[in-house]
Amino acid sequence: xxxxxxxxxxxxxxxxxxxxxxxxxxxxxxxxxxxxxxxxxxxxxxxxxxxxxxxxxxxxxxxxxxxxxxxxxxxxxxxxxxxxxxxxxxxxxxxxxxxxxxxxxxxxxxxxxxxxxxxxxxxxxxxxxxxxxxxxxxxxxxxxxxxxxxxxxxxxxxxxxxxxxxxxxxxxxxxxxxxxxxxxxxxxxxxxxxxxxxxxxxxxxxxxxxxxxxxxxxxxxxxxxxxxxxxxxxxxxxxxxxxxxxxxxxxxxxxxxxxxxxxxxxxxxxxxxxxxxxxxxxxxxxxxxxxxxxxxxxxxxxxxxxxxxxxxxxxxxxxxxxxxxxxxxxxxxxxxxxxxxxxxxxxxxxxxxxxxxxxxxxxxxxxxxxxxxxxxxxxxxxxxxxxxxxxxx
Length: 393
Known about the structure:
Layout: H1 15-33, H2 37-43, H3 48-57, H4 75-86, H5 90-109, H6 112-124, E1 129-132, E2 148-152, E3 155-166, E4 173-179, E5 191-197, E6 202-207, E7 218-229, H7 241-277, E8 279-280, E9 283-284, H8 289-317, H9 323-348, H10 359-371, H11 376-390
Parallel strand pairs: 1-4
Antiparallel strand pairs: 2-3, 3-7, 4-5, 6-7, 8-9
Helix pairs in contact: 1-4, 4-7, 4-8, 5-6, 5-7, 7-8, 7-9, 7-10, 8-9, 9-10, 9-11
């Protein structure tokens, strides 16, 4: 049975497995998702039934090692899953991607005890969460965070606010970046990350309203004298939180790139299909050179974004440092999605502005990817710095 492969453990991964996984997910999207997206998105309603199905598929453990109950998928396969789902509804991928960035922080940097305690629960989706980095006055410059953690016996007491946290409402925990030494120089040496489960002092202050990316919950979280056990300090030692956060963002940027590929593909498919049935001046608009120029550029962007994303995912799988590759993929694929969504709307004309078609949703979702997981302006800086570092004169 094809479904069974998504819940296997202890078996080596093969290309045949990848084909089966993508087939299972593709059939699920066609059967249970595509016809419900517009209503859920319009209502900004959390897709509980779809999340339960993704739990059954094992997607919340997609990149978690099999020894901890996950699927142990390579990033290259994971990226293809994200692309496939994003072609139908990008919001679904954010629900498990944010969770898997948190899981990656624990798996890559946590103690063995922390891995055994948290990763199996993460893998099943029993305990879901996200990475809590951003604050009201701190986005790209993570070293400027103000959330403080102070040691008190066997606990740390945490005070501060985090914002734009995916899964903040429906999830049960976050990987929480804090300052444990406000006077440290350089500043990143004073940063520490915890696995913070919901409890007294951990408050969801509000659900944030968004232009697009509906369905997934984005929240502002307030920590008021919130106590977290010292055993939840990722890695067991203070001062490494910035490194943990940045390390997890490599996978996050590959995910955003894969989303960009999916959304760019969706825009191309919509535009290609519509251009063959819409007629002006006695012929389908796909026969007009102006439309052909748009479709040609859109198709080229899709393919280039796909190749960059595959390249970054393979670099991640090899264990190499891949912030430059992930940055390139994220930069190009997100811009490709935005350009394709815009061109798709122009191909549709007035109908592209109507909520009766998915085009306007693609147009609203696309800008997020140019901002999330590090702005594209920052990606350009990361790429340039790595380029220089790797090519010294």
